[in-house]
Design goal:
The strands form 6 sheets. Strands 3, 4, 5, 6 and 7 form a 5-stranded antiparallel β-sheet that branches. A 4-stranded parallel β-sheet has the order 8-11-14-18. Strands 10-13-16-17 form a 4-stranded mixed β-sheet. By secondary structure, the protein is α/β, with parallel strands linked by helices. Helix 1 packs antiparallel against helix 2. The protein is flat and about 140 Å long. It contains 10 helices and 21 strands.
Length: 474
């Protein structure tokens, strides 16, 4: 529409000049003709310039659209890859494999250098939005930032920075870089439309550091005064109250809402019954939950106001945090990570035995059988199991017997078992002048080993037991 209007205006101006020329004298007509020619040349130049400008604008608009489309494609591939990594850690695993050798290797048709496993190159194709657009291909791959000497993928140990959720707690942190590129599907690999990247962190925080850690709604309603030291977290709502006083000294993180009331019957508590430490060190380091969370001292069953909570406690109380993934009981079974990654495995094997009966009746449980299996696992630096050593029945029996040292030797540092035996004998009877040869020392050690592993009844750890007392004295 704009081009047609401008063309009509130019034609009208041109006809007007022709009509003006026809009305003039021959001499004047020459000047008017010259003027017409000059104006025509000028107008033609303007038309050409406008056409070039329109073309440049069209190219610029298309380039901008291509750039935006490429960015959105690369970002989409980035988000897909980030979610894949997140799901791996939710399942209590970590990525395995190798990244592609180069970016070009990820984009070319040869798949031999695309990497392997969770780090490998992945491609997504996005259809063209309309006939004037081109289809796009996005490529993504992952690089580990945890590689230590020897190429092992190990986490970084540290503490959560102040101000973040679970601040000041010990953590194991994994870091990964996700890289994505996008280009027109039929374009060469060196004509990239957009590139994006993301650094993803996964933190493993041991749960034993928490004073309270709960999956569902959590209530803390003490009857007597309670000083609660240690972080508190729940993946749901938190209900706080007290008959006298509840003081919380550490960070509180809640996935849903925080209440100054009881859950089951809606009982409320006066202002000051619950107080939580503020991050600023002042003469009054604690603030009352009710007034700080509602701006009023009136009791209420309503949840605390997140904005007022943040203004009063800053990072000390965090509401609406993402729910944490909790390991299920399966992580503790024989196929779980705790067993599979343990270097020392102790299995309870409850065979028909009773080690406390001491019975020798063939129909009774055999006290000689130790109801445990202990295995030591040897691994490479990358975690690969190289061998496993299980304790024999005799070695297991020896673990049930006490290791006794005489009072005379309790303060000495003696590492040689043979020398210890000789010294014990001398300490018991200093005037005997006992001297043992190396062969005699070895024989005594061997005899003791045989005696220990042959003992089928554990020695009772009771000072009133005559056997224990006699052994302890000598």
């Amino acid at each position: 529409m704009k081009n047609n209007a401008e063309s009509k205006s130019l034609r009208f101006l041109y006809r007007s000049l022709i009509q003006l020329c026809q009305k003039q004298s021959p001499t004047a007509q020459g000047y008017v003709l010259f003027l017409i020619i000059s104006v025509s040349i000028a107008l033609s130049g303007l038309l050409i310039a406008y056409a070039l400008l329109a073309k440049v604008h069209s190219i610029s608009m298309k380039s901008s659209a291509d750039s935006n489309n490429g960015f959105y494609a690369a970002e989409a591939a980035l988000n897909v890859r980030a979610e894949q990594l997140r799901s791996i850690f939710i399942d209590y695993r970590k990525p395995t494999g190798t990244p592609p050798s180069t970016l070009s290797a990820c984009m070319d048709a040869d798949t031999s250098n695309d990497g392997t496993g969770d780090y490998s190159c992945q491609a997504q194709t996005f259809a063209a939005a309309n006939s004037a657009s081109d289809s796009l291909s996005a490529y993504s791959y992952v690089v580990s930032n945890n590689a230590q000497s020897g190429g092992t993928d190990q986490p970084t140990t540290g503490t959560v920075p102040p101000g973040e959720s679970f601040q000041n707690l010990n953590m194991l942190e994994y870091r990964y870089s996700i890289n994505t590129v996008a280009k027109k599907t039929n374009s060469p690999t060196d004509q990239v439309t957009a590139m994006t990247g993301m650094v993803l962190k996964s933190r493993l925080i041991p749960m034993f550091q928490f004073a309270a850690f709960y999956l569902n709604d959590l209530e803390i309603l003490p009857g007597a005064d309670m000083n609660l030291s240690g972080p508190i977290h729940t993946n749901s709502n938190l209900y706080l109250g007290a008959n006298t006083l509840l003081s919380i000294n550490s960070q509180v993180t809640v996935s849903k809402n925080l209440y100054n009331s009881r859950k089951n019957d809606g009982s409320t508590y006066p202002n000051g019954r619950v107080r939580i430490k503020t991050p600023t060190q002042t003469t009054t380091p604690f603030a009352a939950l009710l007034q700080g969370g509602t701006g009023s001292t009136a009791e209420t069953t309503n949840p605390m106001n997140p904005n007022l909570i943040a203004a009063t406690w800053f990072s000390q109380i965090k509401l609406g945090v993402d729910a944490l993934s909790i390991p299920d009981a399966g992580i503790l079974d024989l196929n779980g990570d705790y067993y599979q990654k343990a270097d020392l495995r102790i299995n309870y094997t409850p065979a028909p035995t009773n080690n406390n009966s001491g019975s020798t009746n063939a129909t009774s449980p055999d006290p000689a059988t130790v109801p445990f299996a202990i295995t030591s696992i040897r691994r490479t630096s990358s975690g690969t199991v190289t061998s496993s050593i299980a304790l024999t029945e005799g070695e297991l029996r020896s673990l049930r017997q006490p290791v006794l040292v005489s009072q005379a030797l309790s303060g000495t540092n003696i590492a040689d078992a043979n020398y210890r035996l000789c010294t014990v004998a001398t300490a018991v009877n200093p005037g005997a002048g006992i001297t043992l040869t190396g062969t005699q020392k070895t024989a005594i050690v061997n005899a003791l080993n045989v005696a220990i592993v042959s003992q089928t009844t554990p020695l009772a750890y009771d000072s009133s037991n005559p056997a224990f007392s006699a052994t302890k004295e000598t």
